[in-house]
Amino acid sequence: MRWTRTTRRSSAWVVAALAVAAVAAPAGPADAASPRWRESVLPAEGVGVDGLAAPGPATTWAAATRVVQEGKGTRFEQTLFTTDPAAPGGWREVPLDPAGAGSRANAIDASCDGDALLVGDYDSSLGAVVTQHAHDGTWSLAAAPVPEHTLYGGLLQVDTRTTDDAWAVGWAQIDDGTVPDPDGGPSQQLSHHEPLVEHWNGAAWQNTSLPQVAPSWALTDVEALAPDDVWAVGQTDDDLQPVLMHFDGTAWTRTPTPRYAGVQGELLQLAARDGTVWAVGSAKQTPDATPAGLVLRLSDGVWRQVLLPRGTGRLTAAAATPAGIATLGTDPDGSFGLLLTATGTTDLHLPADVHLTSLLARGTTLATGGLRPATATEPARPVVLTTG
Question: Roughly how many angstroms between the first and final C-alpha of the chain, as a whole number?
Fold first, then answer.
């Protein structure tokens, strides 16, 4: 489904007319094109929006995670809100399957007829990852299988191409056994990360095998352009290098990452439109450097880096629009948004006091969701900002 995009692990608009070669995008005039954001506060406290989806032309869903205090501990609950003009504030909560208690709501995606998938974390009591499937207005548990000896993990992103063709990716922490402490202390548990790639056939999830890319690695996003053209991105854990994976309808293979400006990098999110695919994330010039934004672009079968204005921070989310690609990022000042076009870069002028994690593009409308932090007088609240 091409309307939705969001991101999170352990969880810049670029038009198609950009030159095939990587070129630096000059800063463009911001004030003339600055969007005006309208903020909606969702009816909850202490809940942050983790994903946005469009199940219909006039409806927006906001997937969120509720933190519930239980004695000295906490647990998570998957939570969903929908736009509703009749509700106070224009939003109301949607009932989910109670089996989602104990899991975050990491991401959500919907097909045009409202069929949707919401993905979350591994639940040891189920021995599977908690996901929920919406059909005919009702949400029900759809457990996603995991490898043997899974200790923890989850699905971080989902892309619903049709009601019976969806992909989700994430990671699983695999138990490698224990080794004794040479000093006589408690034994040490060994583990590694393996990526999870799950395919939804309309009725159930099927775990998909991958080639061995690294001793420990994970995937963070997936984009399904066609049944035989699916992309996924992530990062290796040992040498901290970005990973590009492609599915041709038969098997997954690794695609070499183009040379990029850095010694370490990560890819966190994908966006695609009209056959062009973008991947966003970050790179470091040195291992101790502050992460800088990284954008790769696939055009005519070749991945190339798109250079960004100096000082661009880590990019964490992307969404394709008729005009190009929107992206969210984080830097020491908080969340930011960029619009990259053939004529330059525009600051989206997001409010500095909101922590934003997700993007949704629909036509000329752009929405972003996150959390307005608590103040001395107000609790933290989930918010959705829209423009256009």
Answer: 21
Task: Please report, for residues 272, 279, 302, 303, 377, the alpha-carbon distance to residue 298 in angstroms, rounded to integers and kept in the order given.
Answer: 9, 8, 5, 4, 48
DSSP 103: S
- Collect contacts of 85-93 with beta carbons under 8 A, ≥24 apart: 87/43, 88/43, 89/40, 89/41, 89/42, 89/43, 90/40, 91/40, 91/42, 91/43, 91/62, 91/384, 92/43, 93/43, 93/44
Would you place residue 214 in the very low, low, confident or very high pLDDT band (cuts 50, 70, 90)?
A: very high
Tokens of 183: 């000093």
Per the CB < 8 A criterion, the answer to whether 336 and 313 are in contact is: yes
Token readout for 140 is 């029900």
Closest CA to 58 of 80, 106, 90: 90
Token representation of residue 105:
């709501």
Q: According to the model, what pLDDT value does residue 49 have?
A: 96
d(CA 51, CA 56): 16
Question: pTM for this one?
Answer: 0.89
What are phi and psi for residue 88, nearest 5 degrees? Answer: -60, 125
Closest CA to 294 of 208, 235, 248: 235
Element (DSSP H or E) covering residue 265 = strand 264-273
Question: What's the CATH code, domain 4-179+187-387?
Answer: 2.130.10.120
Instruction: Report the SS3 class of residue 54.
Output: strand
Helix count (H) and strand count (E) of the chain?
A: 0, 29
Closest CA to 381 of 360, 354, 362: 354
Residue whose tokens read 């661009």: 312
Question: Which residues on neighbouring strands pair with residue 129, listed in sequence order?
Answer: 122, 144
- Closest C-alpha among 121, 118, 97 to residue 196: 121
Q: Residue 367 forms beta bridges with which residues?
A: 360, 386
Q: In this structure, how many other beta carbons lie within 10 angstroms of the beta carbon of residue 286? A: 9
Residue 22 has pLDDT above 70, yes or no: no
- The structure tokens listed for 98 are 């109670």
